[in-house]
Amino acid sequence: MESIITLEPVFKEKIWGGRKLETEFGYQIPDGPVGECWAISAHPNGDCTITSGEYAGKTLSWLWDVHRELFGNEGGDRFPLLIKIIDAKDDLSIQVHPDDAYAAEHENGSLGKRECWYVLSAEEGGSIIVGQRAHSREEFAQMVEEGRWSDLLNELPIKTGDFFQIDPGTVHAIKGGTVILESQQSSDVTYRVYDYDRKQDDGTLRPLHMQQALDVIDFEQVPPTSGAIDLGDAPVAQLESNSCYTVELVRVGEDGCPSALTMPTPYPFTCVSVVEGEGTCCGMPVKKGSHLLALSACDELAFEGAMTVVTSHL
Ligand code: ZN
Questions:
Q1: Do 212 and 240 belong to one domain?
Q2: Domain end point (choices 216, 244, 276)
Q3: Is-catalytic flag, 192?
Q4: DSSP secondary-structure letter at 55?
Q5: Which end of the chain has fewer beta carbons closer than 10 Å to its terminal beta carbon, N or C?
Q6: Which residues of the chain have a pLDDT value below 50?
């Protein structure tokens, strides 16, 4: 049975995107500002094509629909996760995502969007917006109306290696100069609160969605004060675990961690993204920018080399 597959990423042109997906990750990308690499995705807006093994040429959504046994017969009508690299040359819009219940009702049965960010690189003095300070819809709407953005938004300094969990209802924005690995629910529903009055090439503004944003913002949430994480000495550090996903950071041959490591993967599937360095995974050569999808037949991941890897599973 097929145990590990590779996929062809889908690239997304964005007004805030840059060229680092080519210059730093070596992907062949389209011309223009490219903001996102959908590396492991079965979402209809970017369904990756399989590039290895007996299912080469088929899409990941096809594999999920037709060969569920490869995913341990996991339930659900869609492959549930989406792994992206985001190159923000400029600021992304101030935005918020709905939870599953709101998205199911208002967005044609879509999943909500819970996401998390591992910061791959950040400019000196870089920052990020996670959370806001209004206590009610009325207060939020008024602060937006008055343009009191710095009072309203919780802006934090960031550095390489920071990690942020973004629950549905959290107002957030990735700022320019930042490259991030995003692990998220397979959803493309974003409610924009503010887009800096930026014009697209055709002179129009991207739409805002203030009413939906006010519906979904979690006004009880306390904004974080830092994205710093303590990895400890162990080669495998859990970054986040919730009802949608568990995300782990794996260090191989770095920071005093051994150059060979085996990790059990008793899951329906495991997403594997190499974010720094190079080596092998189950004997396959991998390097920064490589993504693999380990299927349920893969009982363990054997890493060798000098690299940093982010994994995610249900
Ligand atoms: Zn988001």
A1: no
A2: 216
A3: yes
A4: G
A5: N
A6: none
Q: Is 230 inside any structural domain? A: no
pLDDT confidence of residue 200: 87
By C-alpha distance, which of 13, 72, 83, 73 is closest to 42?
Answer: 83
Kindly give the distance from the C-alpha atom of residue 64 to the centroid of ligand 1, in angstroms, as a whole number: 25
CATH number of 256's domain: 2.60.120.10
Do 74 and 121 have their domain in common?
yes
C-alpha 5 – ligand 1 centre gap (Å): 27
Task: Cite the beta strand spans of 19-152 per DSSP E.
Answer: 34-40, 42-43, 46-47, 49-50, 81-88, 94-96, 115-122, 127-132
Same structural domain, 206 and 242:
no
The catalytically annotated residue of 78, 133, 148, 192 is 192
Phi, psi (deg, nearest 5) at residue 74: -55, 140
Closest-CA residue to 92 (of 9, 191, 20, 6) = 191
Q: What's the domain count of the chain?
A: 2
Give 99 Cα–ligand 1 centroid separation in angstroms. Answer: 12
| Single-letter amino acid, residue 252 | V
Same domain flag for 162 and 273: no
Q: Let me know whether 187 and 271 are in one domain.
A: no
pTM: 0.95
Determine the pLDDT at residue 269: 98
